[in-house]
Amino acid sequence: MLAGTPVILLREGTERAQGSEAQNEIIRAARAIADSVRSTLGPRGRDKMLVDSLGDVVITNDGATILKQMEIEHPAAKMLAEVAKAQDQECGDGTKTSVILTGELLHRAEELIAEKVHPTLIVRGYQIAAERALERLEAIARPVGPSDLELLRRIAMTSMISKGVGGYRVELADLAVRAVREVMDTRGTRPVFDRKNVQVVRRQGGDIRDTELIEGHIVEGAGVHSAMPKLVESAKIALFEAPLEVKKTEFNAEIRITESAQVESFLREEERMVQTMVEAIVRSGATVVFAEKGIDDLAAEHLARAGVLALRRVKRSDLELLARATGARLVARPVDIEPTDLGAAARVEERKIGDDRLTLITGCPHAKAVTILIRGGTTHVVEEVDRSLADAIMTVGTALEDGRVVTGAGAAAVELSQHLRDFAASVGGREQMAVEAFADALEIIPVTLAENAGMDTINTLIELRRLHKGGAMQAGVNVLEGTVSNMDEIAVEPIRVDRQILRGATETSTMLLRIDDVISAKRSPAPPTGPKGPGMSGEEFA
Ligand code: ADP
Ligand code: MG
pTM of the predicted model, to two decimals? Predict the structure, then answer.
């Protein structure tokens, strides 16, 4: 009677959880993560202080950062961190919402499982519901275009609402909108936004309000020689991948030099090679040089004498950016440079920020590229501004690419929830219960927003349901006022954020619901935690 009995051989020490035990554990772990994120959602969300194993501290409200830093161990919980990551990569916003919704979908599934609804049916029901919700989402979205400045600023502000940059949101939103509009491009008729064209440079010091938008690039560092020009107009730009130096003559290696005349001739030879190189550069017409590697003192001196501005140890990514923007080609050997290798820029100038010297390259013919120079009193502030701006830039870019936005603050969630409840009746059977559970789960979004604002969650939900039933599609939780009202001018999000939240949360929750067997390899033993002498056992300190 062995036929049909699965035989699975597991290595000694392997842990295994099966059936409902496995399921319960997965749901418990995933919900624990989702719950821990809840208090951070929305304009009244709190921050988390994260301390890593080296004692470094980050205070943030950014979902992706929180989940990345939590160093989650449980495999199911790790999947939730993945939802956040996918969300962050896809649209740079909505990370916490996607995690919270995933947790709530699992919570509702748990209740159905307790009522003996089979997980497979729940999975089916959830998928049907998600499809239907996505359709409805498209239907309730409204258009946005590059000239809708006020709406774009709203979108940027919505994405930054819970960040620790409160009082500066208006300024930062304006920067984000200007930056994105500057670099928006088209492929065919489709608007495209390439994040790479917005460079962000951070400099601690000054005030957040000194954060500025520069139409062009910033390269760290400045001319390698003090006699080099600080400003070059109508610049002809050369980019070198190789060092600008002659190979050092090694006096004590293969060649033995006995006479001082020979030493002289070697040095002259070196000098001659440098001259040849610099002459080639000058002959090409280059007035500014960016080198990925070093520039030795001799070469620097000759370049300075020729009136050429030269920077060394320029990052590869900056060289590539400059190549695109100025039309220059990366050249391997400096002596090979030709006029056709050069790029152009209206101005290249040195700029001092605090104690740092930076170089600004503006008026590039090819790329529509901009740089945001972030300032702020402390590194914590600069980092939070960076994260907030990154979200705002991505969100505005996404909105312009999609050309469609929806109302946040729980408005879209309630609208979808109600639509699904009406629809559920037509599904019938036990799957109907799953569609209804999905509808219930969506309400976690307004409920959490209200909860974090200290509002009465039950009354808020009743009011929201009533308004939406009456056709007020934009009614949401006005967190800052503590009321329920029309939010279409206060909380606006690109449709992609909500689309990805629905997809990500559905995919992850259904994937976890399908698991009925968790097989974990034996963990390698933890490293010893240091000497424990007699009388130093843990209990005594407890
Ligand atoms: P996430 O990581 O999911 O983006 P946030 O903390 O940024 O989390 O909160 C986003 C939620 O806050 C969204 O549901 C959004 O619609 C909502 N929201 C944004 N601005 C407001 C506002 N002024 N009033 C109420 N809700 C808002
Ligand atoms: Mg957000």
Answer: 0.76
